[in-house]
């Protein structure tokens, strides 16, 4: 299947040596980072999963930025802007702003509890506070659904990228397999520290290339206004609510913002693990401030102009996820176009290694060790992490090959699932009235309703509002009502959590 326009395919094929040299240079750096991290890695679960809680604020910031941006941010979001217009960008930036405020609040509290009680997963924290293995299993279900959705999205994006870079020589399916194998080797060798160090390099590369791409589009178009003017009759719909597709009302924008940004950036298991891994609770103000700058540069300068100019240059692209790759070879010099595609590859690797690492850590810790085999020693837990990772990578590849869908909807669905963990987290760190019964019922209902409405099994009863947002509101209502009708946690448990937080903040 030929996915490239003939003129772009010819450019790629005629510059193979340059493209291959660029790829080789990236992978040399990739291998060196993995090697250095492997030398620091001890055969200790805490080091493998949370990097011995030793990461500096700059490393934490860039590992969160690179892992969340991903193929979704560099392929999916430009494609969504291409399809929807400015309202989608508004949804993304609204969600990021809310997420950064929540990160500044929850980050220090999660860090304090993780550092004091040696927690490494969300299930550790919530299962201990509510004294319930069922609540712990909810975090595993959320991890499975969220991480698998993101892994599939990244493997699809990786397959697209390698297909474009190879001039259709590497089929999309083989490209997805290649990405999965590379990521497995990296995670097994280097653990979270290697992931975080690679994310730092990838993050700088991603930020630089997105900025350069956006500035180049502005220059070749004759200014920011000319980019929008080039849309012609589509302009008015493109820049105004409800967007080109006509559904992006304010309530819909808020729902997308919650699913695409707030869920992945704050409540996903990978975000919790990064909060545990920070060196100090005082780092989160710096992390939030820098994250806001990174997102503004990435999306206002990068993804917006890619999506809008792409609509002008390629108005009839069959799969919008291709638009950033196709436009790179039309707008940028070949060397920079190749570098931009390598930056997408970097984002894909950063996200895939993050979510495979997180998924295996939560399943092994919260099911294998906490529920099935409490006496499991750390050496076996570490071996199981690496073995189970192979299984989930294979499942991700299989799902990607069987269900080729748009990247961004997968990411929004995954974020909606993890958002349902907000209510029990609030109880564990803030609201002492929260009960175990509420933590058992409310997020469970929220997860089920998200599945039912986002997968279109049943229609959403609130028209114009995303199903994941409706499910979250029902979760919140149930959590509050049930908590007031049942007993809160024992005073000693509240003191162990809320008292500890109050003393250290």
Written overview of the protein:
The structure is a single chain. The protein is mainly α. The chain has a single domain, classed as Sodium/glucose cotransporter (Up-down Bundle). It is built from 21 helices and no strands. It has helices at 6-14, 16-40, 45-50, 57-84, 86-117, 122-130, 133-165, 172-221, 224-229, 235-239, 250-267, 269-277, 284-313, 323-331, 334-372, 378-402, 407-419, 422-429, 436-454, 467-485, 491-504. Helix 7 (133-165) crosses helix 16, helix 7 runs parallel beside helix 19 (436-454) and helix 8 (172-221) packs across helix 13 (284-313).
Write the layout of secondary structure elements.
Layout: H1 6-14, H2 16-40, H3 45-50, H4 57-84, H5 86-117, H6 122-130, H7 133-165, H8 172-221, H9 224-229, H10 235-239, H11 250-267, H12 269-277, H13 284-313, H14 323-331, H15 334-372, H16 378-402, H17 407-419, H18 422-429, H19 436-454, H20 467-485, H21 491-504
Helix pairs in contact: 2-8, 2-15, 4-5, 4-7, 4-8, 4-13, 4-15, 5-11, 5-12, 5-13, 6-7, 7-8, 7-15, 7-16, 7-17, 7-19, 8-13, 8-15, 8-16, 11-12, 11-17, 11-20, 13-14, 14-15, 15-16, 17-19, 18-19, 19-20
Keywords:
505 residues, globular, mainly alpha, Sodium/glucose cotransporter, 21 helices
Report the sheet with the most strands, covering strand number, pairing sense and barrel closure: none
Number of separate helices: 21
The name of the CATH topology is Sodium/glucose cotransporter
Overall pLDDT confidence: 85
CATH class: Mainly Alpha
Classify the beta-strand content into a percent band: under 5%
What's the name of the CATH homologous superfamily? Sodium/glucose cotransporter
Number of strands: 0
Low-pLDDT stretches: none
Order of helices and strands: HHHHHHHHHHHHHHHHHHHHH
> Could you say which overall geometry the principal axes of the C-alpha atoms support?
globular
Helix content, binned percent: over 70%
CATH architecture: Up-down Bundle
Oligomer: single chain
- Helical/strand content category: mainly alpha
Number of domains: 1
Measured on Cα atoms, how large is the radius of gyration? Answer: 22 Å
End-to-end Cα distance, whole Å, is 58 Å
